[in-house]
Amino acid sequence: MSTDPHARTFHSYEPRHGHGLPHDPFNAIVGPRPIGWISTRGATGALNLAPYSFFNAFNYTPPILGFASIGAKDTLANVEATGEFVWNLATRELAEAMNQTCAAVPPEVDEFALAGLTPLASRLVAPPRVAESPVAMECRRTQIVQLQGADGTKVPTWLVLGEVVAVHIDTALLKDGVYDTANAGHILRAGGPADYFTVGPEQVFRMFRPR
User: Fold this and answer.
1) Distance (Å, rounded) from C-alpha 138 to C-alpha 88?
2) Dihedral class, residue 176 (left if φ above 0, else alpha if ψ from -120 to 50, else beta)
3) How far from 25 is each of 12, 18, 82, 127, 134, CA to CA, in Å?
4) DSSP conformation letters of 24-64
5) What is the pLDDT along the chain (211 residues), one digit of tens a residue?
6) Interatomic CA distance for residues 129 and 123, integer angstroms
7) Judging by DSSP bridges, how do beta strands 196-198 and 64-70 pair with one another?
8) Which Pfam families match (predicted)?
9) Is the pTM of this model over 0.90?
């Protein structure tokens, strides 16, 4: 791919008129994205575990995580009811189990059991974390925002934000006290109907900010 702007041709489109391609490129361009593998407990005590591909960190102090629920799903209802959730790191080893928790099942179905995963009691919140995951962050809801278009029309998508109140890291991933992202096995959601990426040492490069 040339870096010369005069040597490039562009496929340009306005999303409201369609993209004109076999698959919407939006998810592939804004990616790969970390996966929000979110565990919650409903008001009745039922457990829920589901992955969200619109997920990220939004603040350092206090640390805030957020994910977007496209549609009013069980996770959203549980966070609305209880104000708590846990983010669990999805790794390559856990990819198939994570994928199982995508299944569209009734609210009373326990996705931990469905995917053969072990719920592990959290420290400060009621929802458990995934015992098999090497990293988890317990969160308390700060905001739930229904998104809207530029014209002010509400869309059926809700951004759920939560303050991280407890963090759990497998000590094997701490190298001289520094979290070893490259060897943690993170998986990331890419574009297309089934594409994912992994992170490994071969992708690492370092670049310091100018002073």
Assistant:
1) 9
2) left
3) 11, 11, 36, 35, 32
4) --HHHHS-SEE-EEEEEE-TTS-EEEEEESSEEEEETTTTE
5) 666 777 789 999 999 999 999 888 888 888 899 999 999 999 999 999 999 999 999 999 999 999 999 999 999 999 999 999 999 999 999 999 999 999 999 988 999 999 999 999 999 999 999 999 999 999 999 999 999 999 999 999 999 999 999 999 999 999 999 999 999 999 999 877 789 999 999 988 999 999 9
6) 10
7) unpaired
8) Flavin_Reduct (PF01613)
9) yes
d(CA 136, CA 123): 11
Cα Dmax for the chain: 61
Strand-pair category, 196-198 with 187-189: antiparallel
H or E segment to which residue 100 belongs: helix 95-100
* Structural domains of the chain, with CATH: 31-203 (2.30.110.10)
User: In the 8-state DSSP scheme, what is residue 91?
Assistant: B
- The Cβ of residue 108 has, within 10 Å, a number of other Cβ atoms equal to 11
55 beta partners: 67
Residue type at 204 in one-letter notation: V
